[in-house]
Amino acid sequence: MSNQDVAGRKPLQVLEKIRESLERLNEKIEVIIELQKHDRKDVQEPLSDAPLDVMTLLSMPDHLRKTAMTLCRMGRATAEEISEQTKRARAVESAYLNQLVIMRHLKKERNGRKAYFFVDRENQR
Amino acid sequence: MSMMGKIVAVHSYKGGTGKTLISINLAAALAEQGKKVCLFDLDFRAPSLATLLKIEKSECWLNDYLNNVCEIDKVLLDLSERVHDGGKLFVGLANPATEAIRDMSAKDRKWEMRALGRLLALRTSLLNDKRLDYLMLDTSPGLQYSSINAIVSADLVLVATTFDRSDVDGTRRMLRELYDLFEKKTEVVLNKILDVSSKTGKDEIQSKVNDVYQVPLLGIVPCFCDILKARGGIIFSQEKPDHPFTRIMNEMAAKLDKMGQ
Questions:
Q1: The domain spanning residue A22 has which CATH number?
Q2: Which domains are present in chain B?
Q3: Domain that holds residue A95
Q4: 151-210 in B: which are within 8 Å (CB) of A?
Q5: pLDDT in tens, B147-173
Q6: Is the pTM above the cut of 0.90?
Q7: What is the CA radius of gyration of chain A?
Q8: Of residues A100, A71, A95, the one with CA closest to residue A85
Q9: Chain B positions in Cβ-Cβ contact with residue A77 (cut-off 8 Å)
């Protein structure tokens, strides 16, 4: 394919956008799959105040606690970095991390293609 | 010793099991073996290290560090002059003032969450930057926020326990319902034990610990009248190097150090 504009954009940029969208879609599907697996019991209603303190960690299901504990130790990490520590698949960690974001225990931000997860200790409501 | 230092929390189900006695003497024993050690008093409800170490004032307390009003350097007190064999010993103290105890008892969940972050940051500031071999955390007994924060931050939990029935029962529950959930490596230290003079006696205790707790036993500390008589006024590992209690602490320190190799 030539490097000329397609509908005002370069083909490479268009493909990049499609890839990003697919990745986000994939993350959402992973969360849905995990929610189905665990019968939604572990995802409580989002709370307005959900600090990730030790008592919250204690009350979490084992699979989420492992992810949350690892992120607590690392401070800020991608799903890939968490999976290296927990020895579980990246897709599984991505799903758990996104579940923890839904539960408002974690925050997520993107830097280019990479999604970083962290505990917002200072600004958590 | 591995390249990276280790955080060791000393915890128990009940009070009076000898956590502080074990923490302070184990830290001193490690320092006497040439290690760079720091001991923190995280028992904010009943601080005792300041009294035991005969320190009346500190520029900053651990309370201040956790309240984010000072950095950890300001909290550390260098007691290395009390160490004989080239090791280093630092301490961080909890503020023993009644007002400070009251203030720490009234903290909310958000504060505790931030305190956990400050404790977790010690791995970088003390183990990586200051290259400490050991950070020992003397905690308050039971399921208090501050002690669970310490457990979460630690690499290893030493559980001080006695053969008191309620202590055995509570410790067993805590092992399953607290340390296991956090996937913490745990070792038991049996304190105030009678009749450990014979090998048979020790073997029986070892087997009992295996049956009841199903975790490794770091050491057995007999009931010493000398310890009671000292009333917390003597750091045996420093002042009584030939005492049997010091020998047990040295053995435990050596075992602890071997785990990191």
A1: 1.10.10.10
A2: 6-259 (3.40.50.300)
A3: 11-118
A4: 151-152, 178, 181-183
A5: 999 999 999 999 999 988 889 999 999
A6: no
A7: 17
A8: A71
A9: none
